[in-house]
Write a structure and sequence with these properties.
Shape: globular
Number of domains: 1
Distance between the termini: 31 Å
CATH architecture: 3-Layer(aba) Sandwich
Radius of gyration: 16 Å
CATH superfamily: Gcn5-related N-acetyltransferase (GNAT)
Length: 175
């Protein structure tokens, strides 16, 4: 299956369809964590991310198979977030391809470190979070610190159903 990876443009995207896909993926994976009315992304926010050329997409046969938000923290540090694979293409490595593409893109922009933040419940074991922790570690990400959720996403804790912490991982991009 041929996967095309690129920086998204407004011409590539049906904003509403992609917002619906991302929110459905996160609702399915994190339903026990968030209050029902919380949405991972809005049309306006996704439009803003695309306008800043921070959304990377994987495309298969003219259909978006997944996306990842690549955001600069500073000149040398970038972080990725909002990694989502279209359920139709789940399990074929779309997430891995997007993370690798995000790392390569960050290197091309001059970064030497990639960061991610994983939101993890503190009162129970969330199997998807265990999987992600293991996967991120396997692909070279090192746990650097743990913070309150609001440290990484100011004000977001008001939308949580359960107590969570934000685990910060980093990976050197240039060895």
């Amino acid at each position: 299956m041929d996967v095309q990876l690129k920086i998204a443009s407004k011409q590539d995207i049906n904003i509403t369809a992609l917002v619906n896909m991302i929110n459905a993926v996160y609702r399915n994976a994190e339903d026990e964590i968030w209050q029902k009315e919380h949405l991972r992304i809005s049309n306006d926010r996704l439009t803003e991310i695309i306008g800043k050329q921070e959304l990377l997409i994987a495309v298969i046969n003219d259909e978006i198979a997944g996306c990842i938000h690549l955001e600069p923290v500073n000149k040398l540090l970038y972080k990725f977030k909002m990694l989502a694979a279209n359920p139709k293409y789940k399990g074929i490595g779309i997430g891995s391809k997007l993370v690798k593409f995000a790392e390569e893109t960050a290197i091309n922009y001059g970064a030497d470190t990639m960061q991610l933040e994983l939101l993890v419940p503190t009162d129970f074991i969330h199997e998807d979070k265990v999987f992600l922790n293991n996967w991120y570690s396997k692909i070279g990400y090192i746990k650097k610190s743990t913070h309150s959720v609001d440290y990484c996403h100011d004000g977001i804790s008001q939308f949580l159903k359960v107590d969570c912490e934000a685990i910060v991982y980093q990976k050197p991009l240039i060895l």
